[in-house]
Each structure stands twice: as C-alpha cells, then as structure tokens.
Specification:
Length: 203
Amino acid sequence: CDLVIITVSRHYLQVLRLEIHSHSDSIPILILGDSLKISRSDLLDLPSDTLINRYFPDGSLLQKLILKQGQKSLFNNQKLLTYAFNQGLIAFLIVLPLLALWLKLLYIRRERYYIEHLLISLNVHTFTIFVLLLYQCLETWTPDWFTTVIFFVLMVYLFLAMRRFYGQSYFKTLGKMLLSLFVYFFLAMLGILGTFIISFLLF
C-alpha cells in the first residue's frame, strides 16, 4: 500500500514540475471543475494567500485549499511523501481488519473466530511485504521476467495458505482466493485514494 502511495505521489509531483518548467508563460490548472491559468513566476514566487486572492478570489474554501496545497507541494515534496507514507501505514491498519471481516463472512460456516482470520491476513501481508522489499533491493540485478516470478510466488503462497488454513477443496479455495483478491484490491484502492487526498490536503 505504502509503496503504491509513494509512487502515485511522485508521479503527481513530476507532472506538476513538468508543467511549471515548460516554455509557456502560464500554467493551466483545473480545480474541481473550474479552470484557470497562473503565471509561472507568480506560482513560484507569491505567497499562497496572495496567489489565491489574485487568481481565485471567488473559489470555494476547498478549491482555495487545493490551490494552496498544490503550491506548497512544489517546495515541500519530500514532506508530502513522508506524510503520505505515514498515513499509508494508518490506511494499511484499516484495510487489514476489513479484509479479515470479509474472510469471516466468506468462511462463515467454518466457525472460526475473527482473530483467526485477522492472523492469516497479517501472515500473508507480512510475507508479501518481505518479498516485495527483497525484490526492490534486488531489482537492479534481476531480469524483467523476474516480476512474473514474484507475482507467481505470491499467488501460490496465498493459495496454499488459504488451502491449509481453511481446509477446503482446491477448486473452492481458488474461487474464494480470486474473489478475496478482488475485494482486497477494491479496499486497497479506496485506502490509497483516501490516503493521497488526505495527505495532499493536510500535509
């Protein structure tokens, strides 16, 4: 979750810098449906309150906050990334119990306690984070196809963990694993989106 959040944040900052360092004298900006053009020099030199009063005096409080934070992110991008990472940890702690609740509902006939579903979720997450961190350290020395190997290893581990823990057939385990992956990625995307928005508005 956190790696994705940082990647999204860096992509946003790179696009923003590309716009600023273009040859155009003004930068087009779209804020919640309202478009405006801001001088590059004003965006870089003016205080945020002066910038808002000059270019967006009639904007809503949320629009003004977005413009203020957008300008702030140009000069404090590392602070934004750090804040997003810290918030990402909170999002992870929220998504994990929700996933355990999903597993509790999915395997409601297995008569297992909620904490047991939480433990297997934590176990799979721990293994996944370990493998991804290891891969990131070795990425420079690995071929392109090694990413496919990593994905295959993670899927096999998840399948075997669910098969052994819940004791169902291979077919049922595969079906529930795919369904759980869909639910997990949906929850993760909501967590990532919410984390990035909160980080951008509050850092």
